[in-house]
Automatic annotation (TrEMBL):
It comes from the Bacteria. The chain crosses the membrane at residues 373-391. Coiled coil: none annotated. Residues 3-33, 41-107, 114-181, 188-255 form the Ig-like domain. This is Bacterial Ig-like domain-containing protein. Pfam families: Big_3 (PF07523), MucBP (PF06458). Keywords: Membrane, Repeat, Transmembrane, Transmembrane helix. It comes from Enterococcus raffinosus. Gene3D superfamilies: Immunoglobulins (2.60.40.10), Putative peptidoglycan bound protein (lpxtg motif) (3.10.20.320).
Length: 398
């Protein structure tokens, strides 16, 4: 038999004729060369350190030479290089019926992060979990909004002092912030007081001390004060409020009616040795009012000193002293002046002294005092003259 198959090319799809001849008889056969449809489709991918991964994740599809689908389980896979615990790029080979495809698996470092911070607040302060949140990023390092985080702040109780934990979670990453709720130490201490109509007064007079929420001292200038109700010109009880950081204290200022204080002036009439020559005169009046005293005429005595405080203003227990000397027979001096003041006059003793000291030595004698001092010297001179006269006369007679 003679065969002619020279036309057949199995490397190319097509229909080819093959002739068979024997003893003059020829037959023709057709050979159809089909295109092989076997194929494996895979794709590259990126994952993050620690992510779950399997070779099937990168497999798309496969068909046999006839174009019929092939199940993944019928594919031969080599993924031994892949290590999801380390960043890097790894190759995975997929083989079926002589066809091989390669997929690249890139394992990236995970950039997921949640940053928070601890904080301290005070009992009663407003607080929300977002206050302690700083930032968050996904595995690609892209920002993540707070609303996308899972937060557990159920333990926080801002009405009680204590330290509480708040957890913030995103994509498997958890961070914990501590919230310390402190007891508030803020305090303002003031006191009530009483003053009199017309007295000087300022709000600081009733302020004792203040401390902030940490217990540190606070200056008065940092206190908010309302003293608008106080009127020192009228009697009454007025409230003054002192406020700092939400804490208010109230002081009461009582304005009383001012009662007039009485003063006395005791006028004394004495000699140079402090002996009483006449009844004391006592003047009474309101402190601050004017008074005036006068010397008395005292028979047989002459005034030698008028005190500097003979005039002045009433205050408690003033003593005014007029000092006299014995005239020793000199002419009588009459003085009808009277002490005067706004109050009553009475005899009184035992008042505290406010004396004007008098120096007795070195005083010049008054006119009458000069006469009484010179007279003895004249008498002595006369006696000596007479004695000398008789002495001289006796001498001459001899």
């Amino acid at each position: 038999m003679t065969v002619d198959s020279t036309e057949v090319d199995t490397s190319k799809a097509g229909t080819y004729e093959v002739t068979y001849t024997y003893d003059g008889i020829t037959s023709v056969a057709k050979v159809t060369v089909k295109a092989r449809q076997t194929a494996l489709k895979v794709h590259d991918s990126s994952i993050y350190v620690g992510d779950a991964w399997k070779a099937e994740d990168n497999f798309d599809s496969a068909v046999d030479k006839d174009g019929k689908p092939v199940a993944f389980k019928d594919i031969t896979v080599d993924s031994t290089e892949v290590d999801t615990s380390k960043a890097g790029t790894y190759e995975v080979t997929y083989t079926y019926d002589g066809v091989t495809s390669v997929a690249k698996v890139t394992v990236k470092a995970r950039q997921t992060a949640v940053k928070v911070h601890d904080s301290s607040i005070y009992v009663g302060d407003a607080w929300k979990a977002e206050d302690n949140f700083d930032s968050a990023t996904n595995k690609d390092g892209e920002p993540v909004a707070f609303k996308d985080l899972t937060v557990d702040d159920t333990k926080v109780d801002t009405s009680k002092a204590g330290t509480y934990e708040v957890t913030y979670m995103y994509d498997g990453v958890t961070s914990v912030a501590k919230v310390t709720v402190k007891a508030i130490k803020t305090a303002v201490k003031v006191h009530d007081s009483s003053i009199y109509v017309g007295d000087a007064w300022k709000a600081e007079d009733n302020f004792d001390s203040a401390v902030d929420k940490d217990g540190n001292p606070v200056d008065f200038k940092d206190i908010t004060v309302d003293s608008t109700k106080v009127e020192t010109s009228k009697t009454g009880t007025y409230e003054v409020t002192y406020t700092y950081d939400g804490v208010t204290s109230v002081a009461k200022v009582t304005v009383k009616e001012r009662k007039a204080s009485k003063g006395t002036v005791t006028v004394k009439y004495i000699d140079e040795d402090g002996n009483k020559l006449s009844e004391d005169v006592v003047l009474s009046g309101i402190e601050g009012e004017e008074y005036e005293t006068k010397a008395k005429h005292i028979s047989g005595y002459e005034l030698i000193h008028e005190p500097a405080n003979k005039k002045g203003k009433f205050k408690k227990n003033i003593v005014v002293e007029y000092i006299y000397t014995n005239k020793k027979g000199s002419a009588t001096v009459v003085n009808n002046n009277q002490a005067k003041g706004t109050g009553s006059v009475s005899s009184n003793t035992g008042i505290l002294h406010e004396k004007n000291n008098i120096k007795k030595s070195g005083q010049l004698p008054k006119t009458n005092e000069q006469v009484s001092v010179v007279a003895p010297f004249i008498g002595i001179l006369v006696i000596l003259s007479v004695a000398y006269f008789y002495f001289r006369k006796g001498k001459l007679n001899k």
